[in-house]
Amino acid sequence: MKIKDITNYLEELAPLSYAEDFDNVGLLVGNYATEVAGVLVTLDTLEETIDEAIAKNCNLIVSFHPIIFGGLKKLNGNNYVERVVLKAIKNDIAIYATHTALDNTHLGVSAKMCEVLGIKNPQVLLPKKNIIKKLTTYIPFAQANNIREKLFEVGAGKIGNYSNCSFNMEGKGSFKGNENSNPVVGNTGELRFEEETCITFIFESYLESKILQTLYKYHPYEEVSYEIITLENYNQNIGMGMIGELPSAITEDAFLKLVKKKFKTGCVRHSNKLDKKIKKVAVLGGSGSFAINNAIQQKADAYISADFKYHEFFKAENKILLTDVGHYESEQFTKNLLVEYLSKKFTKFAVILSEKSTNPIYYF
């Protein structure tokens, strides 16, 4: 089993195109062709994480946070990032990071937070834009059904809970090949009119290469006519954060106690209590102050995230209970999610949950 086999599977869960523009995801250290001895799953990759991988005979670390975030201009070991990368390279250990690619998937970080809290029927809080594309192509009438089915098989035409979605329109296409052409129908230099089906599909952007390969493979024409555009539509199943409901409404104090217990935190920072029951809850792993207004607009009673600054608590405006559980605490279950996902697929080598806490924050 090669590293590429593992990363391909991870990217079915969290396609790299889901990641935010500022992020650095994918294989950060190592070679895709390397054979895998074992996988260590962690939230962060530190020097002690490399040591743990060595001790457990794991030559691939799957990390949530990327150890290389900005550009590295030198590798002298002068800071913890450089030391981690140097140690990984010296010991032939690859590092792969998922970060916001996993944040944005509906089975990712926020979904795991909902599972831990028992939140029912969670929906995406901030649906993501610009990851839906539309393909329009023109196919000879006789081959249209076959090519349509082949494109469906590789993911074209999937909308939420529906698959095999397309729009079809019949008409006549025209073409005239020059002296270098080799037309499938008609003759060189001849103006030809052909009965064709215009088929339109939407698809997620990460599937583009696979869809085009399939189109070229099965389309009969020497020159394949098609167009692809990026849509402004939101994808309701992909995006940051989630919102859903607790099994029953509880008091604010009971809610805060539940959050503190479930997220195993020494401190829960929160905005002013409003003396109302908590039922509808929004969550977002990591730094989530940017979604406070979204949680309010969707009528959440409470919003759980991390890294709220002093003035950001004022944004509650007596409309919502803002709850800061800590960055590490909000994301701590992510590595369990990744282990569960990988263990179902790969059984020929160990997929190990890191035993090390990489939380840099302590409570007194």
TrEMBL record:
Keywords annotated in UniProt: Metal-binding
GO cellular component: cytoplasm
Keyword Metal-binding: yes
SUPFAM superfamilies the UniProt entry points to: NIF3 (NGG1p interacting factor 3)-like
Top-level lineage group: Bacteria
Keyword presence, Metal-binding: yes
GO molecular function, one term: metal ion binding
Residues annotated as binding a divalent metal cation: H65, D103, H327, E331
Protein family according to the UniProt entry: Belongs to the GTP cyclohydrolase I type 2/NIF3 family.
Subunit note: Homohexamer.
Name the UniProt record assigns to this protein: GTP cyclohydrolase 1 type 2 homolog
